[in-house]
Specification:
heterodimer; A: alpha/beta; Elongation Factor Tu (Ef-tu), domain 3; Rossmann fold; seven-stranded antiparallel β-sheet; seven-stranded mixed β-sheet; 6 helices; B: alpha/beta; TIM Barrel; 9 helices; 16 strands
Chain lengths: 271, 304
């Protein structure tokens, strides 16, 4: 159940190039948000920008968290790209921001994660949405594929190192790791994932990347979920502005904010 | 002084306050129940319903502009049958007025829908959309031609006993003329305005920002134009006017009421702040108290 509530900024720092982490103290949302869900943030009090902006969960610490200081806190990652995110960079510690969340349907997990291949594939800031999966499946063996245009776009590398994970990196200009797209990199390593272990694939990134991923997943018979990002009006299902085309027979246009943002990749209708 | 009177009357409908939520920005009501008590609203208006289901327009469907939002949802809705089955029951539990927004592609469809909604428990009124700018067939034709609008409203009027509100398009030369046609046809009230036809182009890809190329502009950017149109219509017709267009806060709502609106609808504001409608009711009450006005009705058209 979503809440509309204020959060207090506890941290707003630049990680590198255009990427920032925003931390907020907001127990109602921090206590309930699940991997793959998102929040809608009102960037400014005036109407510039007019609409809220959606951000998927990066880290959250419920009241049950052992570290007292972190309890009730929530973190998102954002890239400074337009008017809204530019304004966000000016948020200061102690300022209030209005939030709606948790929103949307998150990721679902295999019944026995330890007996499956858990594969995370993220492009650009998309990898951030997959980080909570690593937290949720702590202990399971993870195969993490991180991609970006340049090495400046490779995020969360240190985060994933804390887990039982094999990490591979791809950059389109070759400045770090494999030269090419993250899906190309994954294809080059696909034989690691034999058919005698079930493979669960989790993806997030630009539409082109997810389309390429859908092809591989279908061919290899992987169970694949992906988190989608579209322009959103409200974030809670009222306006039907954020739809994507699916294979649903009666209602092909499904809401990313409500039925998603996580969809089984096989359900998506690619043009 | 908390008991200043916010009641207004639209046709046969007595509303506890003048704040409604406009069609298409309030889903099927249930999307808002986590955030507000819907019963506090003067009325809720459903998403637009057609006889047959509509899949809607291809994405992208929305684009934000300075102080505005262009949308081309394309009236996606489950159709009359499915609406009754899966959406109406939620509304029927509410203790506020439910107004059904509906539209057809032909005059026959309008009449058929009006007839079918008549007598269904829980439905207090109908808002006829003759003005949606998104769907090529139907809508725009009726809403832009005073003669066609008159005939359409007259035939729908005969098909229902419910309070009939006609929602007017601002995409006309003379909105007062359109309002007069609707009233002559038998409308109990008019709501205005729907969105302004608009578009946006991405200069990098040289492609439209919307899948449908054109959409309708809403939000604070359109408020001054909507206000002017309400005032024009107020001078032209005697029936109640429901003011719509970029109302974000109580001050905006009061402006519309002063210009002649008996009630108002919140649209885009609901998407940004699900509590917007409730906050506007509180704000109107405060304004009345501060200005020692005991009844909101005294404010309607009190401009000039």
């Amino acid at each position: 159940m979503p809440f509309q509530t204020d959060g207090t900024v506890i941290e707003n720092r630049r990680v590198k190039s255009l990427y920032y982490i925003l931390g907020m103290d907001c127990p109602p949302i921090a206590n309930h948000i699940k991997p793959g869900q998102f929040i809608m943030l009102k960037v400014s009090e005036d109407s510039s920008p007019l609409l809220r902006r959606p951000f998927s969960l990066y880290k959250s610490y419920p009241d049950s968290h052992p570290e007292k200081k972190k309890r009730g806190c929530l973190f998102i990652y954002y890239k400074e790209v337009g008017k809204g995110t530019q304004k966000m960079t000016t948020l200061r510690k102690g300022q209030k921001v209005n939030l709606i969340g948790p929103l949307g349907k998150g990721f679902t997990f295999p019944p026995l994660p330890s007996s499956a291949n858990i594969i995370l594939i993220g492009g650009g800031v998309g990898i951030v949405s997959l980080y909570p999966i690593a937290e949720a499946l702590r202990g399971a063996k993870l195969f993490v594929f991180i991609g970006g245009t340049t090495q400046d776009d490779i995020l969360c590398l240190e985060d994933f190192k804390k887990f039982n994970s094999t990490i591979s990196v791809a950059t389109e200009n070759g400045s770090l790791g494999f030269q090419g797209t993250v899906v190309d990199l994954f294809i080059s390593q696909r034989r690691m994932f034999t058919k005698n272990r079930k493979s669960y694939l989790y993806g997030c990134g630009p539409v082109g990347m997810l389309k390429a991923l859908a092809k591989v997943a279908k061919f290899r018979n992987f169970i694949c979920q992906a988190s989608f990002e579209t322009r959103m009006g409200c974030g809670f299902g009222a306006c039907w502005g954020c739809v994507i085309k699916t294979n649903h027979p009666q209602t092909p246009y499904q809401r990313v904010c409500k039925e998603g943002p996580v969809f089984p990749l096989k359900d998506i209708h690619w043009e | 002084m908390q008991n200043c009177d916010l009641h207004v009357t639209i046709g046969k409908l007595a509303l506890k306050n003048p704040v409604m939520v406009s069609s298409g920005t309030f889903g099927f009501g249930e999307e808002f129940e986590d955030f507000i008590d819907l019963n506090q609203l003067g009325a809720v208006i459903s998403k637009g319903i057609s006889l047959k289901p509509m899949v809607g327009n291809p994405p992208p469907r929305i684009f934000e502009t300075e102080g505005g939002l262009i949308n081309s949802i394309g009236l996606q809705n489950p159709g009359f049958q499915e609406f009754l089955k899966s959406k109406l029951p939620y509304y029927q539990h509410l203790k506020t007025r439910l107004i059904i927004n509906f539209f057809g592609n032909t005059q026959k469809e309008y009449i058929e829908l009006a007839r079918r909604f008549d007598g269904i428990p829980g439905i207090s009124g109908l808002e006829m959309n003759i003005s949606c700018p998104n769907v090529k067939r139907g809508g725009i034709v009726f809403g832009a031609d005073p003669q066609m609008a008159f005939h359409l409203v007259r035939s729908v009027r005969k098909a229902t006993t419910l309070t009939l509100i006609v929602k007017l398009s601002p995409n006309v030369t003379d909105i007062a003329l359109m309002a007069r046609s609707a009233v002559e046809g038998g409308a109990d009230a008019v709501s205005l305005v729907n969105t302004f036809r608009a578009m946006a182009i991405n200069i990098h890809s040289k492609k439209p920002e919307l899948g449908n190329i054109m959409g309708g502009l809403s939000g604070p950017a359109i408020k001054p134009i909507a206000l002017r149109m309400v005032w024009e219509v107020h001078q032209a017709v005697k029936v109640p006017i429901i003011g719509v267009g970029g109302i974000m806060k109580a001050e905006d709502a009061i402006e519309f009421i002063l210009a002649g609106a008996s009630a108002i609808q919140m649209g885009t504001a609901n998407l940004i702040n699900p509590r917007a409608g409730i906050e506007v009711i509180q704000g109107i009450r405060k304004y009345l108290v501060r200005n020692k006005i005991d009844r909101i009705q005294k404010l309607i058209g009190a401009f000039g």
